[in-house]
Structure to design on (232 residues):
């Protein structure tokens, strides 16, 4: 396998511990971070995270940020529209969107054309963990030549869940149908055993997680991140 690891730190409150971990990870070459946002409509918690964004950007010009927006469409403060707009302004490398943030795929397309008209390569789609092929989502990705796919390995909204192997089937669905989809990120539920079993899945080039490297000591967090890199 050949990929990159993106610490997500979804369960880590912003503070001294977060800062020490992020600083050490960046110092040791882990410069891509996965940032989760959410409202209380799509998920049962509020994830705003701009303090994390500003801190991570302050670590240097090499830092790249990926956003996973778990918010519904609307006019509320944490709507998918408002968060996406700001993420674009903040220079995020990829911004992943859920189709179910909208009432229809038509509304999703309008959103994409409004906010990502000049940032097509930044736009990404989330494929949630499901035992069944999502043909409508596959068709949307294919018809709109979406490059970036975030495949969830767990149900959205919280960390520390067990990895669901149907995630690999869903990635294969996109690989078979969507030739323009060239970047696949796997998010959630990762363990060292899971990564070892994935050692022949060369289609996955980005891996996001936190529990796999979590530890009370930032030095151990960094050490575990290197262990992850040896497997991906």
């Amino acid at each position: 396998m050949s990929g990159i690891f993106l610490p997500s730190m979804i369960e880590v409150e912003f503070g001294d511990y977060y800062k020490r971990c992020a600083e050490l990870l960046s110092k040791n070459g882990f410069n891509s971070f996965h940032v989760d946002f959410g409202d209380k409509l799509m998920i049962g918690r509020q994830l705003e995270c701009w303090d994390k964004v500003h801190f991570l950007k302050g670590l240097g010009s090499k830092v790249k940020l990926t956003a996973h927006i778990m918010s519904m469409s609307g006019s509320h403060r944490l709507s998918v529209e408002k968060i996406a707009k700001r993420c674009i302004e903040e220079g995020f490398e990829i911004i992943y969107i859920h189709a179910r943030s909208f009432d229809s795929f038509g509304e999703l397309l309008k959103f994409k054309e409004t906010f990502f008209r000049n940032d097509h390569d930044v736009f990404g789609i989330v494929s949630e963990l499901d035992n069944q092929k999502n043909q409508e989502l596959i068709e949307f990705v294919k018809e709109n030549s979406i490059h970036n796919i975030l495949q969830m390995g767990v149900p959205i909204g919280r960390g520390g869940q067990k990895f669901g192997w149907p995630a690999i089937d869903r990635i294969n669905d996109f690989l078979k149908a969507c030739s323009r989809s060239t970047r696949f990120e796997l998010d959630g539920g990762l363990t060292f055993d899971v990564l070892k079993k994935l050692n022949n899945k060369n289609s996955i080039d980005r891996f996001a997680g936190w529990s796999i490297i979590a530890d009370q000591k930032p030095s151990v967090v960094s050490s575990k991140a290197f262990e992850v890199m040896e497997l991906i």
User: Anything to note?
Assistant: The chain is about 35% helix and 20% strand. Strands lie at 4-7, 32-38, 64-70, 94-98, 123-127, 148-152, 183-187, 206-209. Helices lie at 16-27, 50-57, 80-89, 105-115, 135-143, 166-177, 192-197, 218-231.
